[in-house]
């Protein structure tokens, strides 16, 4: 059942939509799902439930501000190049405090897709003691030409097709979600965005999954994580053939089995 948490962010109250999965599994690892640039609780569909049921995990799925049923982005607010840093360093800690997510020995696993994967990395870099591990699907650590081309095409589709109507199934304010994401990624200043220098601060185990056919990024993204996260307990890469930008939709069974094995192994260490 969807619930709401209230936090203070950017000097104003913000309401965050979230959903808990199997909270009765009190001794099980907690997986927190961080969605993509146009995602939300609803956009994940049944993947979090399937993964948690397969592994006997608990789950926490939420919509970042401006997405899903969370508070929309004010019309005059334009996100800066540091928008993912602010989500990782400000929103996520406040949300965790609001919903009572434990730290230390009971720290959660972060399961992040695309922008959500980047935010997960930034959180683990800033707060290494608060994360049990990371499962990253198609994360970004720097900006590539293929990413910009894909986001330019998304803008064209949003303006010329029924894309807004289709996205409205997942967001109360679809313009808030789309333009907040699209405008900053296409801002010329964002081309310099790069978080490789922050990877050495990640200490937890990392599973990085990417489709060989990812239309928003190349395998250089997860390979950069493998070479940069030098202090992580381990970095395991899964490069999936016949898979695009959303491994959990294109190859859900492979992702579930790989994630379950990885989390189970490192949770027992």
Automatic annotation (TrEMBL):
GO MF term list: hydrolase activity
Source species: Variovorax dokdonensis
Xref: InterPro entries: AB_hydrolase_1 (IPR000073), AB_hydrolase_fold (IPR029058), AB_hydrolase_sf (IPR050266)
Top-level taxon of the source organism: Bacteria
Keyword tags: Hydrolase
Protein name: Alpha/beta hydrolase
Domain AB hydrolase-1 stretches: 29-139
